[in-house]
Structures are given as structure tokens and as C-alpha cells.
């Protein structure tokens, strides 16, 4: 490994080093605040390293990892999202239980895993990254181990994710058996035009494994339970970082062998996209629990993303990247509000908890309204530009059925977002008891929410700079 | 920049009014009113400043234009432009917004500042719709305006407000997204044919689209506009939304939101897809005629006064649909005048219903009787607007309906005859309304105060507009004329293209133009 390669790896090295520092700090003295600050410094250092490295790219580091514009863009997104989650968690954890410090080490490990997934172009590094992410998530989901729902969610995720990983691994093995290589580009080269049983089985298993991580229908069963049981900031983390990283990988993998050329894979993804959009939105209608509703809505959102994924490459990458940014911002914001509303014991996840929110806590309420409108894709929010891009990609590639289903299900989706918004506008008959003292870290969480809200609106009104950034950096031109 | 200010001013005033409500509700109302009067002055000044260019045919019909890059990567520009048609509708919008502030003066007592912000934000969105000349910008305004409208119904509405607000939002959103898909289709078809990817209205007007594609794209646009207008199978949101909305909400809905549908048909449907629209015209005109009858029949069957007026809107908008799809200058002029006058007269009827509701806390017709004695001024004004709504000659609505029928007769005589019969139905429900609520022996059970000064001034201004348009329609016709004439070549092209639809191909607008002369027509041409 040359020094240039080592240097190019700097963002990941910084990120890998920071949990060690956090753990060392815990050994010296247990302090929630110190742990958070060290975490943020680690994330900041790695973001700074990202800027330092950016002139060098693309660099292939060993056969395992590639640092190109695409990687840097998604690593940056993951780091920023993790920082937001860390700040939201500080406020959330400060009101609950004890021993919060290891949480941050786990969070950093998870982020590292996600970054490795994004940077990998080799099955080995992909799997290592995925496992780092997954194992950290098992612990994070069940972190509040005093709550039965947390434990339940953690075990559920553990068992199902382990199964999915095994399936994924088997798929990789089959593809390896056929192509004799674990490098994406090598396996992709042998993919084209090969319809042998082993090959198809390998791909099918691969798609199932990835489908599980992205909670696409029919691999979505775990989603609502895990979303409901996990601490709200971690739910946000799963919905954004974990899924975003895997989706970025999916896009990279199939950039080598475009899915629409490989028609059976494309057909398979089209069916999954249809099922995800329909099932996600229809099942979300039935939910009375806000976290479960958002879980189903995230299934639908991944379905929308698949529509862009199936479109022609050029527009697809921009569309996916933009949509993911918008989705990250809105989902993190939404779960941020859920977290801030949650009391010491219970999560604020019933619709009644949101009744009259806009009058009780106007800023928080307004922020949630904007996030929900963004998720629904209403103009002047980032979500609209994202949806616009996805639709444009779909129309450009003449995926009419998918586009029409996307439109139809978006309208269904609007129904449950508006239900929550309507509840927030309802006046309360009996004034409810309000949160008394502002807990520690309230200001930090509020600032994070404010920034997310401003960004959602900013990228909705003036998306041009972000599009430019995406087109400059995220294009998969290196291939 | 004046165009940006026209959109930004209501928004800014809205924010100021919102903040001012912390001091006092009255202050908030006055600020909103003053801001709107300034806005109205700006619009009127534009009207006065540009009379000559409006009368010069052949000249570019934009009076003011502004084009800035917005999202250059996708060919989306911030393109605003004002022509005669937009000017008339913007003037209507601001006028009705003033009416909304005045009619809510005592009705809205809760969250007054927020109410004015929402009202003015809706207005800003509607003005944006009338000014946007980039399809995506248009769509953004089209959708963005739904949110404040939703909030207005959901917060200040009546009993069933959440249901009504939701239904309204879902219907318009469904239509809107179909339109978005059609916009994107148009963008790519045009882009692939010419190499320039753009959403600019003027450039897309020149697009040549394969007939089959054009039909699908046109239907996408039509879905959005037909829901807003509303045309009959897509109308079911309207009675609920109108009935449950607060008075100001009903005025905005009836007066302005429905007009965005008609405006869209005129501005986008024909110019962008002349051939497909012409082929579709018989269907659309049939829907229009069905709407005229259906709306009138259902209006007659209502016991809720507000629902009655709401259904009458469907009937009136049927004329707009008929006029637009007849696509000759006469019918289009009629459709525009009909939109203006329907906005004012139906707005006024909603205001009167609102005033009644404020006084007697019911909208049920069976519980009303003989209010003329109790409130003669209100009765007289209600009679005036009922007559306007049934199309009494000398009042503005008559001009609109008359021109639509004239133009439609040229295009499709059968439709015009049927629509003319529909006017009789309008007479029935309008007079029925008066008969049930105001006539009859003096009502001693329910007593309430007659209109006060604020209410009288407001309604008097609305009467003045209707009378003015009724007696001197030429000014309005001249203003919209150049735009409509500029769009007409598309129609000529289309009628030639659809020889298989003889009903349309027989249209030869110039003959009718020659036969029907309004005072000043020569000057205008």
C-alpha cells in the first residue's frame, strides 16, 4: 500500500480511530458530555479529512476499497447524518437510564461500517463493512435494555439480520463460484449474458440479502417492530445511514452491469419496487403508531428510490443521490422530533401524543410539519425536488407503470402524513402537562432540528448548488 | 422585479400581520388590509400603465417579463410574465383577498394573526400560478398553494373540517402529480427531439409531439385542471371543501382556486397540445354541459345554503369548460369574463351565507324564512347576486355566459343549445334560494341585525364590479383579447388537423367575429 493510498484512506482511519478514543475516555472517566464531544470531534476530523482527500480521488486502495467522488459524497452524507444522530441522542439519552457512553462508540462503529460499505468494490470489504454496521446496530437497537420493546426489537433484528447475512454470503459464494472473483467489476463482467442456474441463484440470494437491509417488500417484516422498539435517534439512524449506505452500494454494483441490460434482474427489482410502494403506503395507512407509520413510509420511499435505480444511469445516480439527501434530512428531522417529544419512560409514538403540537410547541410542530411535507413530496421542500428527480428519471426511461404507481401511492402516502399533520393542528380540549425543565442538551438537539429544517427548505427552494455538487462528485464516471 | 414583488408582498405582509397579532388582533387585520390595498394599487397601476400595448395585436403579449436561472442543470428557470389574461386574474385575486380580509373581520376570532398569514400565503401562491411561465415553477406554485389552503380549512373550518380538507388535498394532489408526469413527458419528448431540455412555456409551445403521446400528455394536464375547475366526475371534493371552509376559505376556493383550473386550460392545454386537445374537445364540452345540468340540479336539491352555492359553482364552471374547449376567441372571452364574474358573484354569495351563519348559527334552509323583513339590505344584496348568478342581462355573468354560448354554437351547436337550457335551471335554484331564505312572512322567531357598514361597503364594491363588467365588458375583453388572439393560431392549426371531427372543423372564427361586434371592437382589432 503506497503512502498516497494510505493518505486517501484518511477519512476512514480517522473514523476508525475515534471509537477507540471514546472507549479510552470512558476508561479514564465516565462522562456523557465528554463522550459526545469526542464523538463529534472524531466525525469532524473525518469530514475534514474528506476535504483534504478530495483532490486526490479516484484512488483504488488494494482491491478492496475505492475512494472516488461517489464514495466521498456518500461518506460525507453518512458522517453528517451520524453527527446529527449523536447530537439528538445526547438529549434523548440524558433523560433516560445510565451508562450512555458506550452508545457513542457503537454509533461510530456503525458509521464506520456504513462508510466501508459505500467505499467497497469488492465483496469481502462489502461484507466486512455490512457486518460492522450490523453488529453495532444489534447493540444500539437494544441499548435501552430496561425496556421490553427494545430487547424484543434487538433480538428480532439480530436473528433476521443474521439470517439475511447468511443468505447474502451464500449468494456471494455462488457468484464467486461462477466468476472466480470477488471484485465487483470482475463478477459483473461475467454476469452479462450468463443465465446459468448457479449465477441466477447467486444473484437472487444477493438481491434478497440486500432487500432485507433496505427493508424492501417482501423482506420488510422486521422494519415496523425494530423501528418501534429502537430508541428514536437510532431508528432515524437505521432508516437513513444503514439503508442509504446499502443503496449506494447497490447502485455501484449494478453500475458495473446496468440492471436494465440484465433484464431478469431489472424485472425482479421492478416487481420489488411496485410491491414496496404499494405495501409500504397501504400498510402505513393502518398504523396508529407514528414510528410504525414512518417505518412503512420508509419502505415506500425505498420503493421510490428503486424506480430511479431502474432508470438510465446518468439521471439515475443524480436522482438517487438527491433523493437520499432529501430523505436523510426529512427522516432524521422527523425522528428527531419524535425523540424530543418522548418522555422519560415512553416513546411519543401514538398519534394522540401529537395532538395540538403546533399550538403547544410551535417550533417543534412546525419542524415536524415541514419534515412530513418533505416526505410527502410537497413543493418548496427538498422532498419535492427528490421526488421530481425520481419521476424525471422514470419518465425519461419510459417506466410508465412504475411512474403511475409512484404517483398513485404518493397520493395514498399523503393521506397518512396529513392525518398526523391534522392531529397536530387539532386544539386540545384539556391542556396537557408540558415538559417542565429543558433537559440537558436540549439546545443542541433544537439546533440540529433547526439546521435540518432550514436545509430541507433550502434544498427545496434552491437545489441548484446541491445538484451541482452531486453531479461533480457523485457521478460514477470513474467506471 | 415588479412581478417578484407582486408575489413577495402578500407573503411579507402576511408575516408582519402574523407578528402584529401578538400586540392586537385588530392591528393584524389592518396591516393585512393595508398590504392588500397596496398590492391592488400595484396591479391597477400596471393595468393603467400598459393600455396601449394591450391593444396592439402582433406585439409580444407580455407586458412585463422576468427570467432568471433557477435550476439550470434541468432547464428550469424562474420565468414570470404578465399579460392581459394574467393581469385580469391577478386583479381578481387581490380584489377577492381584500374581500376575504373584510368578511373575516368578525368571523375569525381564533389565531387571527396566523389566519392572515395563511390567507396571504394562499394569495401569493395563486398570483404565482397566474404569473409563472415555466412549467415547473407553475407546478411548484400550484402545489405549494395547497398547503395553506389545507391549513385554512383544517383550522378555521366547520364541523367536518378535517375530512373536507383531506379530500381537497388528495384530489388536487392526485391531479397535480399526473400533471407533473405529463410535464416531464413533454420535457423529454421536446428535449429528445430538439436537444434543448427546457421547461420554458414559450419554447415548449413550439414542440411537435407525436399524436398518441400528445393525447396522453394532454390528459395528464387535463386531469389536474379538471379536478381544480372542477369538471364533473372529479368534482366531489368541492361541495365538502366549500361547505366546511370558513367564509374566507370558500371565497378563495370558489373565487380563485377554481379559476386556476380554467386559467390552466387556456394557458397550457390548447397551446401545448393543440391537436390532442381538439380531438378531445367534444368529450370535454360534453363534460361541461353535464356539469352545467348536474351542478344546477344538485344545487336545487340542497338544504344547506353553502352547499347550494357550492353546487352552483360546478354549474357555472361548466360554462367555462364549454367556452375554453370551443376554442374561438368569442367563447374564450366568454370563459374569461365568466371566470371573473363567477369569482365575484359566488364570492359575494358565500360572504352573505357567512354573514347569515355568523348571525343565526345555521346554514340550513328549512330553518330560514322571511329574512327580508328582518334584514332588508342583506335581502336586496342577496337578490342582486342571485340574479347575477342566474345570468340577468346587464350584469357581468350574462356577458360571460352569452359569449360562451355564442362561441360554442359556432363550434358545436348542440352543446350550446343544451347549455342554454341549463341557464333555466340556474334561474330555478337562484330564485329558490331567495324564496326559501328571504321571502315569505316576517320571521319573528329569528331576529338579527342587518348588514353593518363594513359588510355593506364590501358587498357594494362587489356589486359595482359585476355591474361594471355587465355594462362595459369591453375593457376586460380588450385586456384579455391580445393573449387569446395570440393563442388562437394554435386553434386554427388544430382545427385543420382534425378533419375527422366535423363539428370542430366547421369552426371559422372570423365569421363570427364579424357578426358580433361590441362597441370598440374595431379599435381593438
Give a short overview.
The complex is a heterodimer of chains A (479) and B (525). Chain A has 20 helices and two strands.
Architecture overview:
The complex is a heterodimer of chains A (479) and B (525). Chain A is mainly alpha-helical and 479 residues long. In chain A, 76% of the residues lie in helices and 1% in strands. Chain A has helices at residues 3-8, 10-28, 32-53, 69-94, 101-119, 123-141, 148-179, 184-191, 197-213, 222-229, 232-256, 263-285, 290-310, 313-341, 357-360, 362-376, 382-396, 400-425, 442-461, 464-474, and strands spanning 59-61, 65-67. In chain A, strands 1-2 form a two-stranded antiparallel ribbon. In chain A, α10 (222-229) packs antiparallel against α11 (232-256) and α10 packs across α13 (290-310). By secondary structure, chain B is mainly α. Helices cover 76% and strands 3% of the residues of chain B. Chain B contains 24 helices and two strands. Chain B has helices at 2-20, 25-49, 51-55, 84-103, 112-131, 135-144, 146-156, 161-194, 201-205, 211-228, 237-244, 247-272, 274-301, 305-326, 329-360, 371-374, 376-390, 396-411, 413-437, 453-471, 474-497, 502-505, 509-515, 521-524; strands spanning 64-71, 76-82. A two-stranded antiparallel sheet of chain B has the order 1-2. In chain B, a hairpin with a 4-residue loop joins β1 (64-71) and β2 (76-82). In chain B, α5 (112-131) packs parallel to α12 (247-272), α7 runs antiparallel to α8 (161-194) and α12 packs antiparallel against α15 (329-360). Residues 491-525 of chain B have low confidence and may be disordered. The A-B interface holds A 373, 378-380, 384, 388, 391-392, 395-396, 403-404, 407-408, 410-411, 414-415, 418-419, 422, 425-426, 462-464, 467-468, 471 and B 69-74, 136, 139-141, 143-144, 146-147, 150-151, 154-155, 162, 165-166, 169-170, 173-174, 177-178, 180-181, 184-185, 187-188.
